[in-house]
Design goal:
The complex is a heterodimer of chains A (257) and B (335). With 257 residues, chain A is an alpha+beta fold. Chain A has helices at residues 18-27, 91-95, 121-125, 147-151, 157-161, 172-188, 233-256; strands at residues 4-9, 53-60, 76-83, 101-103, 109-111, 132-134, 139-141, 167-171, 194-197, 209-214. In chain A, the strands form four sheets. In chain A, strands 8-1-10-9 form a four-stranded mixed β-sheet. Chain A has a two-stranded antiparallel sheet with strand order 2-3. The longest helix of chain A is centred in the last third of the chain and has 24 residues, at 233-256. The mean pLDDT of chain A is 94. By secondary structure, chain B is mostly helical. Chain B is built from 13 helices and no strands. Chain B has helices spanning 9-22, 60-84, 87-112, 115-120, 130-156, 164-191, 196-199, 205-223, 229-252, 258-261, 263-286, 291-320, 323-334. The longest helix of chain B is centred in the C-terminal third of the chain and has 30 residues, at 291-320. The chains are: A alpha+beta (257), B mainly alpha (335).
């Protein structure tokens, strides 16, 4: 079975937000409200219950690859369309007490809206801050990886709408190779800070939304070494067990007199 | 504001001319004062925006943490008291457990929005989800503590069925075990998340929550009139631990613990720690033989432990807003 993945390339993104619009239209995602953040052209700020694709606008004091700025102050304007990472080991999926969040046959992470009961545990368990609770509906929402479209052999709406192929949709191993190749190509052309974001060395074990970015992941609010919270299960329960034993001991001593 | 002599149309024309003539501009361009652009997105985070999402839980959830904890530990006290024998105290402790077990689902349902949603928790059992373990534990605890109360009341009412006594024992043992899990799983629930201040304190929060539950359960019994040496002993130990934890949070001075020390949540943490720790400890030391002093100490501890639950949830909210702490931890771990 093919493993679905996105490869989102910051270096060819033009910040048109067609992906955001296509996602909203296809998935009937509610409005984010009409707010002005002052953060460049970004008025949604982050992924959330009603933002499943989020285009970032980074105005950075750095040169864009081999660019000759002509001024003393280098400057570049970077865009990147962020999305749910559909982690190999997903914190939200592990945390979900209802089984609403499941791994589909396409290896994507999907929230079943009719099963989710809005407990909010996935929200604090996502190391990327993606999934959130819609307070009007009372349940959790995030990118579905256009599960409905994929089942009908269509590519996700955002990838379909992207006019520059900044969002590519395909098989994960192919896209991982493509990402590597793209970074090599960029490096050759003088984009020395080009890199792949796909944290495979951590407990997340790689993402099914791979990114090609310029500069450090922190600038894109991508955690440099995300971990699945459940790796701390053992130490947390051990501490709880130790504390519980002390409690029992104290109560026993108290009533022994 | 006086106009910058550099920002003029003439200056712009000169730059254009230079660019046309030489193909390059040697000098700095024009940045109009107060212009909205050229605002760096920040070298370390995206416009300083949070990476993580804050907890979505309503005010009922920290209250549930408290109520569930007190109910669970009360069942432990009931069982131990059953061994040593204090009929009135056993009955009261079991009732505290049952009342807590009845309030708890109501609080959780209030957070979920609709009663039927709670049932979704019981579709599956997942060991890797502390929330799932907690939901099932609450069900197990309510059933067993309920059964224990029924047995106890029947015995008190004089029904002498032979099976009642062993049944009560079984129910009490199960209630005590599930009560311990009920009182401690909430701390694991916080520790096993992506929120830095919870995750980095995953070894501390269980001690905090269990101590709070222990002292509060003893305090509840005292408020119900059981001013016995056992509750005094339990309460003193709990207050000592609370004092120790409060001091440790201050002294340790870790960056990740900033939400526990700074701002309104920091003061909430201090207030909770002080009430449950030194305040009730001193009251117990100096009013040892004064029942009013003891009741006051019990009340201080209960209020303090309750505040502490809100403080920890609040700290998680603050911690989720700080991208810097997350990056620091992850860079430190990966280097």
């Amino acid at each position: 079975m093919a493993v679905s993945a996105f490869l989102t390339d910051a270096t060819v993104c033009i910040g048109c937000k067609a992906c955001e619009v296509a996602c909203k239209e296809w998935n009937h995602v509610p409005a984010d409200g009409f707010t002005f953040t002052g953060n460049s052209y970004d008025n949604t700020n982050a992924l959330g219950a009603s933002t499943w694709r989020h285009v970032m606008f980074l105005e950075q004091p750095a040169t864009l690859g081999p660019q000759i700025t002509g001024t003393e102050e280098p400057f570049r304007w970077q865009f990147l369309s962020d999305v749910c990472k559909h982690c190999e080991n997903a914190g939200c999926l592990e945390a979900c007490p209802t089984g609403a969040i499941l791994r589909t046959e396409l290896e994507t992470v999907y929230v079943q809206p009719d099963v989710c009961n809005g407990c909010g545990y996935c929200v604090v368990s996502c190391p990327f801050g993606v999934v959130d609770k819609n307070h009007e509906v009372g349940t959790a929402f995030k990118c579905t990886f256009c599960y409905d479209r994929q089942r009908d052999g269509l590519m996700p709406a955002c990838a379909k709408a992207c006019p520059t192929q900044s969002i590519r949709f395909g098989e994960v191993s192919e896209l991982r190779q493509a990402a590597q190749k793209r970074v090599e190509q960029l490096q050759e052309r003088g984009y020395s800070d080009a890199q792949v974001y796909d944290p495979q060395e951590t407990s997340v074990g790689g993402t099914h939304a791979i990114f090609v970015i310029l500069g450090e992941p922190e600038a894109y609010n991508l955690p440099p070494a995300p971990e699945v919270p459940t790796i701390h299960m053992k130490s947390a329960w051990s501490a709880a067990l130790a504390a519980a034993l002390v409690v029992v001991l104290v109560v026993c001593v108290a009533f022994a007199f | 504001m006086a106009a910058d002599p550099q920002i003029t149309e003439a200056r712009l024309d000169a730059l254009r001319e230079e660019a046309a003539r030489t193909g390059k501009v040697q000098h700095k361009g024009i940045v109009p004062a107060g212009s909205p652009f050229l605002k760096p997105a920040g070298a370390t985070s995206y416009h300083g925006n949070p990476v993580l999402k804050p907890p979505t839980w309503t005010w009922q959830v920290p209250l549930y943490f408290f109520v569930g904890g007190v109910a669970g530990i009360s069942a432990v006290i009931a069982l131990v008291a059953q061994v040593s024998g204090n009929a009135a105290l056993i009955r009261a402790a079991l009732w505290i457990g049952l009342v807590g077990a009845l309030i708890s689902p109501a609080l959780l349902i209030a957070d979920l929005g609709r009663p039927a949603r709670f049932l979704n928790m019981l579709r599956v059992f997942k060991l890797q989800s502390a929330m799932s373990i907690g939901a099932w534990t609450l069900v197990g605890f309510s059933s067993t503590v309920g059964l224990a109360v029924i047995c106890r009341e029947l015995i008190v009412a004089g029904f002498g069925y032979g099976f009642l006594i062993p049944l009560e024992w079984i129910a009490e043992i199960l209630a005590a075990v599930s009560g311990l899990v009920l009182a401690s799983y909430t701390s694991v629930l916080l520790g096993v998340t992506a929120i830095p201040v919870w995750s980095e304190n995953r070894r501390l929060v269980p001690a905090v929550f269990l101590t709070g539950a222990l002292g509060s359960a003893a305090g509840m019994l005292e408020l119900l009139g059981f001013l016995v040496p056992a509750t005094q002993f339990i309460a003193i130990i709990a207050s000592i631990v609370e004092t120790f934890v409060a001091v440790m949070i201050e002294v340790r001075g870790r960056y990740v613990d900033r939400p526990l020390r700074e701002g309104p949540v920091g003061w909430l943490t201090r207030a909770g720690g002080a009430l449950a720790g030194p305040v009730s400890l001193l009251l117990r030391m100096f009013a040892r033989y004064n029942s009013v002093g003891r009741l006051l100490a019990a009340l201080c501890f209960i209020v303090g432990a309750l505040i502490t639950r809100y403080a920890w949830i609040g700290a998680g909210r603050e911690s989720s807003r700080d991208p810097e702490v997350l990056f620091r931890i992850q860079r430190a771990h990966s280097d």
